[in-house]
Write a structure and sequence with these properties.
Elements (H helix, E strand, L loop, with lengths): L25 H18 L5 H30 L7 H25 L9 H23 L1 H12 L2 H20 L13 H12 L9 H4 L2 H16 L1 H11 L6 H11 L7 H27 L21 H13 L18 H16 L1 H15 L9 H25 L9 H14 L15 H13 L12 H16 L5 E2 L2 E2 L2 H28 L4 H12 L14 H16 L1 H8 L19
Antiparallel strand pairs: 1-2
Helix pairs in contact: 1-2, 1-4, 2-3, 3-4, 6-7, 6-9, 6-23, 7-9, 7-22, 9-10, 9-13, 10-12, 12-13, 12-14, 13-14, 14-17, 16-17, 16-18, 18-21, 19-20, 20-21, 20-22, 21-22
Length: about 600
Protein backbone atom coordinates (compact mmCIF):
# COMPACT_ATOMS: atom_id res chain seq x y z
CA UNK A 1 0.00 0.00 0.00
CA UNK A 2 1.48 3.35 -1.04
CA UNK A 3 2.22 5.85 1.66
CA UNK A 4 0.13 9.00 1.59
CA UNK A 5 1.66 11.97 -0.09
CA UNK A 6 2.30 14.71 2.45
CA UNK A 7 0.53 17.92 1.75
CA UNK A 8 2.56 21.05 1.07
CA UNK A 9 3.69 22.79 4.19
CA UNK A 10 3.07 19.71 6.34
CA UNK A 11 4.41 20.14 9.77
CA UNK A 12 4.05 23.93 9.72
CA UNK A 13 1.98 25.57 12.39
CA UNK A 14 -1.60 26.16 11.31
CA UNK A 15 -2.67 29.73 12.13
CA UNK A 16 -6.38 30.42 12.20
CA UNK A 17 -7.36 33.48 10.19
CA UNK A 18 -8.35 36.53 12.18
CA UNK A 19 -12.04 37.22 12.16
CA UNK A 20 -12.88 40.49 10.46
CA UNK A 21 -13.66 43.44 12.67
CA UNK A 22 -17.44 43.66 12.86
CA UNK A 23 -17.69 47.43 13.00
CA UNK A 24 -21.35 47.28 11.98
CA UNK A 25 -22.27 44.71 14.64
CA UNK A 26 -25.18 45.80 16.86
CA UNK A 27 -23.08 45.71 20.04
CA UNK A 28 -20.31 47.83 18.49
CA UNK A 29 -22.72 50.41 17.12
CA UNK A 30 -24.76 50.63 20.28
CA UNK A 31 -21.72 50.93 22.56
CA UNK A 32 -19.95 53.53 20.45
CA UNK A 33 -23.00 55.69 19.90
CA UNK A 34 -24.03 55.41 23.57
CA UNK A 35 -20.62 56.71 24.68
CA UNK A 36 -20.83 59.54 22.15
CA UNK A 37 -24.35 60.34 23.31
CA UNK A 38 -23.39 60.44 26.98
CA UNK A 39 -20.43 62.76 26.40
CA UNK A 40 -22.43 65.03 24.12
CA UNK A 41 -25.31 65.33 26.60
CA UNK A 42 -22.93 66.03 29.50
CA UNK A 43 -21.05 68.79 27.69
CA UNK A 44 -24.00 70.52 26.03
CA UNK A 45 -23.56 73.19 24.92
CA UNK A 46 -19.79 73.71 25.06
CA UNK A 47 -18.45 76.24 22.55
CA UNK A 48 -15.62 73.93 21.44
CA UNK A 49 -16.23 70.34 22.53
CA UNK A 50 -19.86 70.24 21.42
CA UNK A 51 -18.82 71.45 17.98
CA UNK A 52 -16.20 68.68 17.79
CA UNK A 53 -18.72 66.03 18.87
CA UNK A 54 -21.31 67.26 16.38
CA UNK A 55 -18.64 67.15 13.66
CA UNK A 56 -17.90 63.53 14.59
CA UNK A 57 -21.61 62.70 14.41
CA UNK A 58 -21.80 64.35 11.01
CA UNK A 59 -18.87 62.27 9.73
CA UNK A 60 -20.51 59.10 11.07
CA UNK A 61 -23.60 59.56 8.89
CA UNK A 62 -21.87 58.05 5.79
CA UNK A 63 -20.76 55.12 8.00
CA UNK A 64 -24.36 54.65 9.13
CA UNK A 65 -25.53 54.74 5.52
CA UNK A 66 -22.88 52.21 4.50
CA UNK A 67 -23.96 49.90 7.33
CA UNK A 68 -27.58 50.14 6.22
CA UNK A 69 -26.71 49.34 2.59
CA UNK A 70 -24.47 46.45 3.65
CA UNK A 71 -27.13 44.86 5.84
CA UNK A 72 -29.81 45.29 3.18
CA UNK A 73 -27.64 43.63 0.54
CA UNK A 74 -26.82 40.74 2.87
CA UNK A 75 -30.49 40.26 3.64
CA UNK A 76 -31.32 40.44 -0.07
CA UNK A 77 -28.78 37.74 -0.92
CA UNK A 78 -30.24 35.49 1.78
CA UNK A 79 -33.72 36.07 0.39
CA UNK A 80 -34.89 37.44 3.72
CA UNK A 81 -36.58 40.48 2.17
CA UNK A 82 -39.96 39.98 0.47
CA UNK A 83 -40.05 41.50 -2.99
CA UNK A 84 -43.16 43.50 -2.14
CA UNK A 85 -41.42 45.30 0.71
CA UNK A 86 -38.23 46.33 -1.12
CA UNK A 87 -39.38 49.80 -2.20
CA UNK A 88 -41.18 50.61 1.08
CA UNK A 89 -38.05 49.60 3.03
CA UNK A 90 -35.78 51.91 1.05
CA UNK A 91 -38.38 54.64 1.26
CA UNK A 92 -38.39 54.26 5.04
CA UNK A 93 -34.61 54.50 5.13
CA UNK A 94 -34.73 57.68 3.04
CA UNK A 95 -37.15 59.20 5.57
CA UNK A 96 -34.88 58.13 8.44
CA UNK A 97 -31.86 59.64 6.66
CA UNK A 98 -33.70 62.93 6.19
CA UNK A 99 -34.70 62.99 9.86
CA UNK A 100 -31.17 62.13 10.97
CA UNK A 101 -29.66 64.87 8.82
CA UNK A 102 -32.31 67.27 10.12
CA UNK A 103 -31.30 66.52 13.73
CA UNK A 104 -27.64 67.18 13.03
CA UNK A 105 -28.40 70.27 10.95
CA UNK A 106 -30.53 71.65 13.80
CA UNK A 107 -27.57 71.17 16.18
CA UNK A 108 -25.24 73.07 13.85
CA UNK A 109 -27.78 75.91 13.57
CA UNK A 110 -28.04 76.14 17.36
CA UNK A 111 -24.33 77.01 17.57
CA UNK A 112 -25.06 80.24 15.71
CA UNK A 113 -27.40 81.49 18.44
CA UNK A 114 -25.75 84.31 20.43
CA UNK A 115 -26.92 82.96 23.81
CA UNK A 116 -24.93 79.74 23.35
CA UNK A 117 -24.83 77.35 26.30
CA UNK A 118 -26.02 80.04 28.76
CA UNK A 119 -29.66 79.62 27.73
CA UNK A 120 -31.36 76.58 29.34
CA UNK A 121 -33.96 76.42 26.52
CA UNK A 122 -31.15 76.21 23.99
CA UNK A 123 -29.41 73.45 25.95
CA UNK A 124 -32.66 71.47 26.21
CA UNK A 125 -33.24 71.79 22.47
CA UNK A 126 -29.66 70.69 21.72
CA UNK A 127 -30.01 67.63 23.94
CA UNK A 128 -33.37 66.76 22.36
CA UNK A 129 -31.85 66.61 18.88
CA UNK A 130 -28.88 64.62 20.20
CA UNK A 131 -31.17 61.95 21.67
CA UNK A 132 -33.35 61.88 18.53
CA UNK A 133 -30.29 61.34 16.33
CA UNK A 134 -29.19 58.48 18.60
CA UNK A 135 -32.62 56.82 18.46
CA UNK A 136 -32.94 57.20 14.68
CA UNK A 137 -29.47 55.90 13.87
CA UNK A 138 -29.60 52.88 16.18
CA UNK A 139 -33.26 52.08 15.81
CA UNK A 140 -32.95 51.75 12.04
CA UNK A 141 -30.09 49.23 12.38
CA UNK A 142 -30.98 47.32 15.53
CA UNK A 143 -34.71 47.26 14.88
CA UNK A 144 -34.67 46.21 11.23
CA UNK A 145 -36.92 43.19 11.65
CA UNK A 146 -39.67 45.07 13.52
CA UNK A 147 -39.36 47.82 10.89
CA UNK A 148 -39.75 45.26 8.12
CA UNK A 149 -42.83 43.74 9.76
CA UNK A 150 -44.30 47.21 10.26
CA UNK A 151 -43.83 48.18 6.61
CA UNK A 152 -45.19 44.91 5.24
CA UNK A 153 -48.27 45.12 7.48
CA UNK A 154 -48.80 48.80 6.70
CA UNK A 155 -48.66 48.87 2.90
CA UNK A 156 -51.87 46.84 2.47
CA UNK A 157 -53.68 48.25 5.50
CA UNK A 158 -55.40 51.64 4.98
CA UNK A 159 -55.84 52.33 8.70
CA UNK A 160 -52.19 51.68 9.51
CA UNK A 161 -51.06 53.61 6.45
CA UNK A 162 -53.03 56.65 7.61
CA UNK A 163 -51.64 56.29 11.13
CA UNK A 164 -48.05 56.12 9.88
CA UNK A 165 -48.36 58.93 7.33
CA UNK A 166 -49.87 61.43 9.77
CA UNK A 167 -47.33 60.48 12.42
CA UNK A 168 -44.36 61.01 10.10
CA UNK A 169 -45.82 64.30 8.87
CA UNK A 170 -46.16 65.55 12.47
CA UNK A 171 -42.53 64.67 13.27
CA UNK A 172 -41.23 66.29 10.09
CA UNK A 173 -43.31 69.38 10.83
CA UNK A 174 -41.85 69.56 14.33
CA UNK A 175 -38.33 69.67 12.87
CA UNK A 176 -39.29 72.41 10.42
CA UNK A 177 -41.06 74.54 13.04
CA UNK A 178 -37.98 74.54 15.29
CA UNK A 179 -35.65 75.79 12.59
CA UNK A 180 -34.00 79.09 13.58
CA UNK A 181 -35.36 80.57 10.34
CA UNK A 182 -38.92 79.56 11.32
CA UNK A 183 -39.07 81.36 14.68
CA UNK A 184 -38.17 84.87 15.77
CA UNK A 185 -36.19 83.56 18.75
CA UNK A 186 -35.30 79.87 18.92
CA UNK A 187 -34.75 80.15 22.67
CA UNK A 188 -38.50 80.67 23.12
CA UNK A 189 -39.49 77.33 21.65
CA UNK A 190 -38.67 73.65 22.08
CA UNK A 191 -39.04 70.43 20.17
CA UNK A 192 -42.10 69.54 22.28
CA UNK A 193 -43.64 72.90 21.36
CA UNK A 194 -42.80 72.27 17.70
CA UNK A 195 -44.31 68.79 17.87
CA UNK A 196 -47.46 70.18 19.50
CA UNK A 197 -47.87 72.90 16.87
CA UNK A 198 -47.09 70.53 13.98
CA UNK A 199 -49.57 67.95 15.29
CA UNK A 200 -52.19 70.63 15.76
CA UNK A 201 -51.62 71.81 12.17
CA UNK A 202 -51.47 68.41 10.44
CA UNK A 203 -54.54 67.34 12.44
CA UNK A 204 -56.29 70.65 11.51
CA UNK A 205 -57.05 71.42 15.16
CA UNK A 206 -55.82 74.95 15.88
CA UNK A 207 -54.78 74.62 19.52
CA UNK A 208 -51.54 76.57 19.96
CA UNK A 209 -49.00 76.94 22.73
CA UNK A 210 -47.62 80.05 21.01
CA UNK A 211 -49.13 83.08 19.36
CA UNK A 212 -48.44 82.41 15.67
CA UNK A 213 -47.76 86.05 14.81
CA UNK A 214 -45.43 86.67 17.78
CA UNK A 215 -43.33 83.50 17.61
CA UNK A 216 -43.18 82.39 13.96
CA UNK A 217 -41.50 84.16 11.07
CA UNK A 218 -43.07 84.24 7.58
CA UNK A 219 -41.27 80.94 6.87
CA UNK A 220 -42.75 79.38 10.00
CA UNK A 221 -46.19 80.63 9.00
CA UNK A 222 -45.81 79.09 5.53
CA UNK A 223 -44.81 75.78 7.13
CA UNK A 224 -47.93 75.88 9.31
CA UNK A 225 -50.11 76.63 6.27
CA UNK A 226 -48.62 73.73 4.31
CA UNK A 227 -49.14 71.40 7.25
CA UNK A 228 -52.83 72.14 7.72
CA UNK A 229 -53.38 72.21 3.96
CA UNK A 230 -51.90 68.71 3.72
CA UNK A 231 -53.84 67.66 6.80
CA UNK A 232 -57.10 69.01 5.39
CA UNK A 233 -56.70 67.30 2.04
CA UNK A 234 -55.26 64.11 3.47
CA UNK A 235 -51.71 62.93 2.89
CA UNK A 236 -52.68 59.94 0.76
CA UNK A 237 -55.05 62.02 -1.37
CA UNK A 238 -52.31 64.54 -2.04
CA UNK A 239 -49.66 61.94 -2.87
CA UNK A 240 -52.03 60.13 -5.23
CA UNK A 241 -52.86 63.44 -6.90
CA UNK A 242 -49.18 64.08 -7.62
CA UNK A 243 -48.90 60.59 -9.13
CA UNK A 244 -51.82 61.38 -11.41
CA UNK A 245 -50.39 64.77 -12.41
CA UNK A 246 -47.04 63.15 -13.22
CA UNK A 247 -48.82 60.78 -15.60
CA UNK A 248 -47.72 57.66 -13.74
CA UNK A 249 -49.84 54.57 -13.31
CA UNK A 250 -51.33 53.69 -9.96
CA UNK A 251 -50.62 50.10 -9.01
CA UNK A 252 -53.62 47.91 -8.29
CA UNK A 253 -52.66 47.43 -4.63
CA UNK A 254 -52.17 51.18 -4.09
CA UNK A 255 -55.45 51.91 -5.87
CA UNK A 256 -57.29 49.45 -3.63
CA UNK A 257 -55.88 51.04 -0.50
CA UNK A 258 -56.61 54.56 -1.73
CA UNK A 259 -60.17 53.70 -2.83
CA UNK A 260 -60.94 52.37 0.63
CA UNK A 261 -59.45 55.44 2.32
CA UNK A 262 -61.52 57.98 0.36
CA UNK A 263 -64.54 55.68 -0.01
CA UNK A 264 -64.43 55.69 -3.83
CA UNK A 265 -67.10 53.56 -5.48
CA UNK A 266 -64.68 51.87 -7.89
CA UNK A 267 -61.10 51.95 -9.15
CA UNK A 268 -62.28 53.63 -12.34
CA UNK A 269 -63.61 56.60 -10.35
CA UNK A 270 -60.52 56.87 -8.16
CA UNK A 271 -58.58 59.23 -10.45
CA UNK A 272 -61.60 61.45 -10.95
CA UNK A 273 -62.37 61.55 -7.21
CA UNK A 274 -58.82 62.42 -6.17
CA UNK A 275 -58.37 65.07 -8.86
CA UNK A 276 -61.78 66.56 -8.06
CA UNK A 277 -61.06 66.72 -4.32
CA UNK A 278 -57.83 68.66 -4.85
CA UNK A 279 -59.25 70.93 -7.57
CA UNK A 280 -62.41 71.69 -5.61
CA UNK A 281 -60.41 72.48 -2.47
CA UNK A 282 -58.05 74.87 -4.24
CA UNK A 283 -60.87 76.63 -6.11
CA UNK A 284 -62.96 77.20 -2.98
CA UNK A 285 -59.91 78.41 -1.05
CA UNK A 286 -58.96 80.79 -3.87
CA UNK A 287 -62.47 82.28 -3.95
CA UNK A 288 -62.46 82.59 -0.17
CA UNK A 289 -59.03 84.26 -0.20
CA UNK A 290 -60.20 86.78 -2.81
CA UNK A 291 -63.29 87.61 -0.73
CA UNK A 292 -61.25 87.99 2.46
CA UNK A 293 -58.68 90.16 0.68
CA UNK A 294 -61.42 92.54 -0.41
CA UNK A 295 -62.54 92.72 3.23
CA UNK A 296 -59.13 92.89 4.91
CA UNK A 297 -58.06 95.86 2.76
CA UNK A 298 -60.32 98.06 4.90
CA UNK A 299 -58.25 97.22 8.01
CA UNK A 300 -54.79 98.87 7.81
CA UNK A 301 -53.58 97.17 11.01
CA UNK A 302 -53.60 93.79 9.24
CA UNK A 303 -50.61 94.90 7.13
CA UNK A 304 -48.52 95.70 10.23
CA UNK A 305 -46.06 93.22 11.81
CA UNK A 306 -46.65 91.52 15.14
CA UNK A 307 -44.49 94.02 17.01
CA UNK A 308 -46.91 96.84 16.23
CA UNK A 309 -49.13 95.78 19.12
CA UNK A 310 -52.46 96.36 17.34
CA UNK A 311 -55.17 93.66 17.81
CA UNK A 312 -55.10 92.77 14.09
CA UNK A 313 -51.34 93.05 13.64
CA UNK A 314 -49.16 90.08 12.80
CA UNK A 315 -49.74 89.15 9.16
CA UNK A 316 -47.74 92.02 7.68
CA UNK A 317 -49.61 91.84 4.38
CA UNK A 318 -53.29 91.86 3.40
CA UNK A 319 -52.95 89.22 0.68
CA UNK A 320 -50.98 86.84 2.87
CA UNK A 321 -53.53 87.26 5.67
CA UNK A 322 -56.38 86.50 3.25
CA UNK A 323 -54.73 83.36 1.87
CA UNK A 324 -53.73 82.04 5.31
CA UNK A 325 -57.17 82.54 6.88
CA UNK A 326 -59.05 81.19 3.84
CA UNK A 327 -57.07 77.94 3.87
CA UNK A 328 -57.28 77.75 7.66
CA UNK A 329 -61.06 78.23 7.62
CA UNK A 330 -61.79 75.75 4.82
CA UNK A 331 -59.50 73.10 6.37
CA UNK A 332 -61.07 73.71 9.80
CA UNK A 333 -57.58 74.46 11.13
CA UNK A 334 -58.45 77.48 13.27
CA UNK A 335 -55.00 79.12 13.11
CA UNK A 336 -54.91 82.91 12.86
CA UNK A 337 -52.11 85.38 12.13
CA UNK A 338 -53.78 88.18 14.06
CA UNK A 339 -52.46 89.07 17.49
CA UNK A 340 -55.91 88.67 19.08
CA UNK A 341 -57.34 86.20 16.58
CA UNK A 342 -60.69 86.87 14.92
CA UNK A 343 -62.15 88.63 17.99
CA UNK A 344 -61.53 92.19 16.66
CA UNK A 345 -63.67 91.27 13.60
CA UNK A 346 -66.69 90.19 15.65
CA UNK A 347 -68.89 92.92 14.12
CA UNK A 348 -67.60 92.55 10.53
CA UNK A 349 -70.34 90.88 8.51
CA UNK A 350 -68.16 90.33 5.40
CA UNK A 351 -65.20 88.83 7.30
CA UNK A 352 -67.31 86.63 9.57
CA UNK A 353 -69.59 85.71 6.68
CA UNK A 354 -66.76 84.50 4.44
CA UNK A 355 -65.12 82.54 7.26
CA UNK A 356 -68.43 80.93 8.26
CA UNK A 357 -69.20 79.89 4.68
CA UNK A 358 -65.74 78.35 4.27
CA UNK A 359 -66.13 76.46 7.56
CA UNK A 360 -69.54 75.10 6.58
CA UNK A 361 -68.40 74.05 3.10
CA UNK A 362 -65.29 72.37 4.48
CA UNK A 363 -67.37 70.60 7.12
CA UNK A 364 -69.82 69.04 4.63
CA UNK A 365 -67.26 66.76 2.98
CA UNK A 366 -66.40 65.99 -0.63
CA UNK A 367 -69.15 63.35 -1.21
CA UNK A 368 -71.77 65.97 -0.36
CA UNK A 369 -70.02 68.63 -2.48
CA UNK A 370 -69.87 66.32 -5.49
CA UNK A 371 -73.50 65.30 -5.27
CA UNK A 372 -74.75 68.87 -4.75
CA UNK A 373 -72.72 70.16 -7.70
CA UNK A 374 -74.10 67.45 -10.00
CA UNK A 375 -77.63 68.15 -8.69
CA UNK A 376 -77.29 71.87 -9.44
CA UNK A 377 -75.84 71.22 -12.92
CA UNK A 378 -78.78 69.01 -13.84
CA UNK A 379 -81.26 71.56 -12.51
CA UNK A 380 -79.59 74.46 -14.40
CA UNK A 381 -79.73 72.48 -17.64
CA UNK A 382 -83.48 72.11 -17.20
CA UNK A 383 -83.43 68.42 -16.28
CA UNK A 384 -84.95 66.64 -13.33
CA UNK A 385 -82.17 65.87 -10.84
CA UNK A 386 -82.27 62.57 -8.97
CA UNK A 387 -83.16 62.46 -5.32
CA UNK A 388 -80.25 63.28 -3.04
CA UNK A 389 -78.71 60.28 -1.32
CA UNK A 390 -79.47 59.46 2.30
CA UNK A 391 -75.93 60.44 3.27
CA UNK A 392 -76.21 63.93 1.75
CA UNK A 393 -79.67 64.56 3.17
CA UNK A 394 -78.59 63.38 6.61
CA UNK A 395 -75.52 65.62 6.59
CA UNK A 396 -77.47 68.68 5.45
CA UNK A 397 -80.40 68.22 7.84
CA UNK A 398 -78.30 67.34 10.89
CA UNK A 399 -75.83 70.16 10.25
CA UNK A 400 -78.65 72.70 9.91
CA UNK A 401 -80.29 71.50 13.15
CA UNK A 402 -77.00 71.73 15.04
CA UNK A 403 -76.16 75.20 13.72
CA UNK A 404 -79.60 76.59 14.61
CA UNK A 405 -79.51 74.91 18.03
CA UNK A 406 -76.10 76.38 18.73
CA UNK A 407 -77.22 79.83 17.58
CA UNK A 408 -80.17 79.80 19.98
CA UNK A 409 -78.06 78.34 22.78
CA UNK A 410 -75.33 81.00 22.54
CA UNK A 411 -77.90 83.82 22.38
CA UNK A 412 -79.75 82.55 25.43
CA UNK A 413 -76.72 81.64 27.53
CA UNK A 414 -74.29 84.42 26.55
CA UNK A 415 -76.50 87.26 25.30
CA UNK A 416 -76.34 88.93 28.71
CA UNK A 417 -72.89 87.70 29.66
CA UNK A 418 -69.87 87.63 27.30
CA UNK A 419 -71.89 89.31 24.51
CA UNK A 420 -73.65 91.95 26.59
CA UNK A 421 -71.47 94.79 25.22
CA UNK A 422 -72.46 93.97 21.62
CA UNK A 423 -75.48 95.32 19.77
CA UNK A 424 -78.27 92.86 19.01
CA UNK A 425 -77.39 92.42 15.31
CA UNK A 426 -73.76 91.79 16.32
CA UNK A 427 -74.89 89.38 19.04
CA UNK A 428 -76.79 87.32 16.46
CA UNK A 429 -73.77 87.38 14.13
CA UNK A 430 -71.42 86.39 16.97
CA UNK A 431 -73.73 83.63 18.19
CA UNK A 432 -74.02 82.22 14.66
CA UNK A 433 -70.25 82.39 14.26
CA UNK A 434 -69.61 80.53 17.54
CA UNK A 435 -72.22 77.91 16.65
CA UNK A 436 -70.57 77.22 13.29
CA UNK A 437 -67.02 77.31 14.63
CA UNK A 438 -67.81 74.55 17.16
CA UNK A 439 -68.24 72.19 14.19
CA UNK A 440 -64.45 71.77 14.14
CA UNK A 441 -63.12 75.15 13.03
CA UNK A 442 -61.81 76.94 16.11
CA UNK A 443 -62.21 80.52 14.79
CA UNK A 444 -63.85 82.23 17.75
CA UNK A 445 -64.85 85.89 17.78
CA UNK A 446 -65.85 85.83 21.47
CA UNK A 447 -63.62 84.84 24.39
CA UNK A 448 -64.68 81.35 25.51
CA UNK A 449 -62.77 81.85 28.74
CA UNK A 450 -65.36 84.47 29.74
CA UNK A 451 -68.35 82.19 29.08
CA UNK A 452 -70.36 80.29 31.67
CA UNK A 453 -69.96 76.63 32.56
CA UNK A 454 -73.33 75.88 30.95
CA UNK A 455 -72.06 77.33 27.66
CA UNK A 456 -68.89 75.25 27.97
CA UNK A 457 -71.06 72.16 28.40
CA UNK A 458 -73.14 72.96 25.32
CA UNK A 459 -70.00 73.72 23.33
CA UNK A 460 -68.46 70.39 24.35
CA UNK A 461 -71.51 68.56 23.02
CA UNK A 462 -71.39 70.43 19.71
CA UNK A 463 -67.64 69.87 19.37
CA UNK A 464 -67.93 66.18 20.19
CA UNK A 465 -70.49 65.73 17.40
CA UNK A 466 -68.29 67.58 14.90
CA UNK A 467 -68.63 67.71 11.12
CA UNK A 468 -69.46 65.25 8.33
CA UNK A 469 -67.52 62.15 7.20
CA UNK A 470 -65.00 62.83 4.44
CA UNK A 471 -64.71 66.47 5.51
CA UNK A 472 -61.88 68.48 7.03
CA UNK A 473 -63.63 68.46 10.42
CA UNK A 474 -63.42 66.03 13.30
CA UNK A 475 -65.70 64.70 16.03
CA UNK A 476 -67.76 61.53 15.93
CA UNK A 477 -69.50 63.01 12.85
CA UNK A 478 -73.07 64.20 12.35
CA UNK A 479 -74.10 60.99 10.55
CA UNK A 480 -73.06 58.92 13.57
CA UNK A 481 -75.30 60.96 15.83
CA UNK A 482 -78.16 60.78 13.31
CA UNK A 483 -77.91 56.97 13.14
CA UNK A 484 -77.79 56.67 16.93
CA UNK A 485 -80.82 58.96 17.21
CA UNK A 486 -82.69 56.84 14.65
CA UNK A 487 -81.76 53.69 16.58
CA UNK A 488 -83.02 55.14 19.85
CA UNK A 489 -86.21 56.31 18.16
CA UNK A 490 -86.78 52.84 16.68
CA UNK A 491 -86.26 51.22 20.08
CA UNK A 492 -88.70 53.57 21.80
CA UNK A 493 -91.36 53.16 19.11
CA UNK A 494 -90.94 49.46 18.61
CA UNK A 495 -89.72 49.56 15.00
CA UNK A 496 -88.05 46.45 13.66
CA UNK A 497 -85.13 48.49 12.27
CA UNK A 498 -84.00 52.13 12.57
CA UNK A 499 -85.54 54.54 10.06
CA UNK A 500 -83.84 57.70 8.86
CA UNK A 501 -85.39 60.19 6.42
CA UNK A 502 -87.56 57.57 4.77
CA UNK A 503 -84.92 54.84 4.60
CA UNK A 504 -84.01 51.81 6.72
CA UNK A 505 -80.56 51.96 8.30
CA UNK A 506 -78.56 48.71 7.87
CA UNK A 507 -77.61 46.84 11.03
CA UNK A 508 -73.91 46.98 10.11
CA UNK A 509 -74.10 50.79 10.01
CA UNK A 510 -75.73 50.86 13.45
CA UNK A 511 -72.94 48.70 14.88
CA UNK A 512 -70.31 50.95 13.33
CA UNK A 513 -71.97 54.09 14.76
CA UNK A 514 -72.13 52.50 18.19
CA UNK A 515 -68.49 51.47 17.95
CA UNK A 516 -67.36 54.98 16.99
CA UNK A 517 -69.40 56.61 19.77
CA UNK A 518 -68.30 54.14 22.45
CA UNK A 519 -64.61 54.30 21.51
CA UNK A 520 -64.76 58.10 21.41
CA UNK A 521 -66.29 58.36 24.87
CA UNK A 522 -63.76 55.85 26.20
CA UNK A 523 -60.79 57.71 24.71
CA UNK A 524 -61.94 61.12 25.90
CA UNK A 525 -62.56 59.78 29.40
CA UNK A 526 -59.17 58.06 29.52
CA UNK A 527 -57.16 61.06 28.36
CA UNK A 528 -59.23 63.36 30.57
CA UNK A 529 -58.23 61.23 33.58
CA UNK A 530 -54.53 61.48 32.60
CA UNK A 531 -54.72 65.25 32.09
CA UNK A 532 -56.41 65.72 35.45
CA UNK A 533 -53.47 63.87 37.01
CA UNK A 534 -50.78 66.13 35.53
CA UNK A 535 -52.52 69.52 35.20
CA UNK A 536 -53.56 71.80 38.10
CA UNK A 537 -56.07 73.83 36.06
CA UNK A 538 -59.84 74.10 36.52
CA UNK A 539 -61.22 70.59 35.87
CA UNK A 540 -64.00 71.92 33.63
CA UNK A 541 -61.42 73.84 31.57
CA UNK A 542 -59.46 70.61 31.14
CA UNK A 543 -62.64 68.84 30.02
CA UNK A 544 -63.19 71.59 27.46
CA UNK A 545 -59.57 71.32 26.26
CA UNK A 546 -59.76 67.53 25.97
CA UNK A 547 -62.96 67.51 23.93
CA UNK A 548 -61.68 70.34 21.73
CA UNK A 549 -58.46 68.43 21.02
CA UNK A 550 -60.23 65.14 20.32
CA UNK A 551 -62.76 66.78 18.00
CA UNK A 552 -59.91 68.75 16.32
CA UNK A 553 -61.80 72.00 16.94
CA UNK A 554 -59.11 74.18 18.49
CA UNK A 555 -61.29 76.22 20.84
CA UNK A 556 -59.80 76.86 24.26
CA UNK A 557 -60.59 78.58 27.51
CA UNK A 558 -57.06 79.96 27.55
CA UNK A 559 -55.06 77.21 29.28
CA UNK A 560 -53.25 75.74 26.25
CA UNK A 561 -50.11 77.87 26.54
CA UNK A 562 -49.79 77.10 30.27
CA UNK A 563 -49.94 73.31 29.90
CA UNK A 564 -46.97 71.36 31.27
CA UNK A 565 -44.75 69.26 29.00
CA UNK A 566 -46.60 66.00 29.85
CA UNK A 567 -49.89 67.82 29.32
CA UNK A 568 -48.80 69.10 25.92
CA UNK A 569 -47.72 65.64 24.83
CA UNK A 570 -51.04 64.16 25.99
CA UNK A 571 -53.04 66.80 24.13
CA UNK A 572 -50.92 66.18 21.00
CA UNK A 573 -51.78 62.47 21.18
CA UNK A 574 -55.48 63.32 21.62
CA UNK A 575 -55.41 65.55 18.54
CA UNK A 576 -53.66 62.82 16.56
CA UNK A 577 -56.24 60.18 17.52
CA UNK A 578 -59.09 62.59 16.85
CA UNK A 579 -57.81 63.32 13.33
CA UNK A 580 -57.35 59.74 12.20
CA UNK A 581 -60.52 58.66 14.01
CA UNK A 582 -61.00 56.27 16.95
CA UNK A 583 -62.27 53.46 14.74
CA UNK A 584 -59.33 53.86 12.35
CA UNK A 585 -56.98 53.66 15.34
CA UNK A 586 -58.71 50.50 16.58
CA UNK A 587 -58.50 48.90 13.12
CA UNK A 588 -54.83 49.86 12.82
CA UNK A 589 -53.94 48.24 16.14
CA UNK A 590 -56.28 45.26 15.90
CA UNK A 591 -55.21 41.80 14.81
CA UNK A 592 -58.05 40.49 12.66
CA UNK A 593 -56.38 37.19 11.84
CA UNK A 594 -58.48 35.48 14.49
CA UNK A 595 -61.78 35.99 12.64
CA UNK A 596 -63.73 32.75 12.26
CA UNK A 597 -66.45 31.80 9.81
CA UNK A 598 -68.88 30.44 12.37
CA UNK A 599 -71.50 31.84 14.72
CA UNK A 600 -71.78 31.07 18.42
CA UNK A 601 -75.13 30.25 20.09
CA UNK A 602 -77.25 33.20 21.19
CA UNK A 603 -78.22 33.89 24.79
CA UNK A 604 -79.97 36.84 26.43
CA UNK A 605 -78.64 39.13 29.15
CA UNK A 606 -80.44 41.77 31.17
CA UNK A 607 -80.22 45.34 29.83
CA UNK A 608 -81.14 48.57 31.63
Amino acid sequence: MAAPVPSPGAGAAIVAPRPPVRWAAPATLLTGSAVLLGVDLALAVSPTLSVVLTAIETLLVPAWLAAVIKKERQAGRRGAIPAASTKPRWGAYVVLLVLLLACIAEKWLLFRHPAGGDDPHLVALYRTYTVLAFVLANGSLLGRRPLERLLVSTMDHPARLMLLSFGLAAVLGAFLLTLPQAVHDIAHTSFVDGLFMATSAICVTGLAVHNVADVYTPLGQVILLLLFQVGGLGIMVLSTFFVIVAGRKIHLRDAAVMAEMIDAESFSKLRRSVAAIVAYTLIVEAIGAAALYATFRHYPDIATPAGAGAPLSGAGDHLWAAVFHAVSAYCSAGFSLFREGMAPLVSSVPASGVVMVLIVIGGLGYPVHDELVRWVVVRVRGGRPPRLSLHTRTVLVTSAVLIVSGLVGFLVLEGGRSMRELSWPTRVLAALHQSITTRSAGFSTVDFGAMSSATWMMTCVLMFIGAAPGSTGGGVKVTTVAVLFATLRAELRGFEAPRLLGRTVPAALVRRAMGVAFLSVLLVAGFLFLLLLVEPHDPFAIVFETVSAFATVGLSTGITSSLSTPGRLLVAVIMFIGRIGPLTLALALANQSGARGFRLPEERVGIG
